Amino acid sequence: MVGSRRSAVKTALQPMRRGVETRSVPPMTLTRGARRRRAALAAVAVAVAVSASACLTAPGGLVNGFLPASDLETITPTCQMWIPAAPSLINLLAAAHSQGVELDPEQCYRTYAQQVAERNFWCSLGLCQFAAVPGTSLHGWGKAVDFADQNGTLTFTSPGYAWLKANAANYCFVHPAWAEPTGSAPEPWHWEWVCG
Ligand SMILES: [Zn+2]
User: Fold this and answer.
1) Which terminal residue of the chain has fewer beta carbons within 10 Å of its beta carbon, N or C?
2) What pTM was estimated for this model as a whole?
């Protein structure tokens, strides 16, 4: 049963768009992606109950989700990274672009308040495992990236996902086991910087 449940989660999540900015938007004004996401999530309301929280160490005594602006580098209007991780992401994006894959880091550093909102959103759907406990996410260290590509938020069949699987390790990025198709929270979009 676990296998079929995981399969159902994976199938339902594949067309799902990412982003929580529409969380408090009234239903009539939800984006197409948000509507599709809600429909997909409603179909998997019996999802696995496993935490997706990350195992962390504090860099330089900093506090997860409270990094000062001086420790963050803006990569795109929607993505800030911890400064030591920024060159890896910049090089990764350039390499993908040179090979025709337009990776877009939709979300990177996440403040504590944003993580609280993210957690509340997913838990309200009975899917707490899709957002780490506030204070534990690698997003809170500016070391995680949620990617889209030219087709939208990554799915397990996206060209961006295939490119990352083949190349991301060269740029210090990995796809954690829990985010794999058979993991506790299948998230094809979520990648983590592991070189510092
Ligand atoms: Zn993520």
Assistant:
1) N
2) 0.72
Distance 2 CA to ligand 1 centre (A): 24
Task: For residue 4, report the distance from its CA to the centre of ligand 1, in Å.
Answer: 24
How many CB atoms are closer than 10 A to CB 43? 14
DSSP letter, residue 17: P
Which region among 16-20, 25-29, 178-182 has the lowest average model confidence (pLDDT)? 25-29
User: For position 168, which CATH number holds?
Assistant: 3.30.1380.10
pLDDT per residue as tens digits for the range 36-82: 343 333 322 222 222 333 434 565 778 999 999 999 999 999 999 99
Secondary element (H or E) of residue 189:
none
For residues 41 and 16, is the Cβ–Cβ distance under 8 A? Answer: yes
Q: From ligand 1's centre to the CA of 179, what distance in Å?
A: 9
CA of 3 to the centre of ligand 1 (A): 23
- Residue 113 Cα to ligand 1 midpoint, Å, equals 15
